Amino acid sequence: MKAPTQPAPLHDTVPASFFDRLQRLYDAMDRGYAQVADHYGFSCEGCKDNCCRTRFHHHTYLEYLFVLRGVATLDTEIQLQVQLRAAQICRSFDQADGLGLQVREMCPLNVDSRCILYSHRPMICRLHGIPHQLRKPGQNTLYGPGCSTFDKRCGNKPYYRFDRTPFYIGMARLENEFKQAVGLTGRIKMTIARIIAYSAEGREHETH
Ligand code: SF4
Question: Rounded CA gap, 165 and 172, in Å?
Answer without folding.
Answer: 11
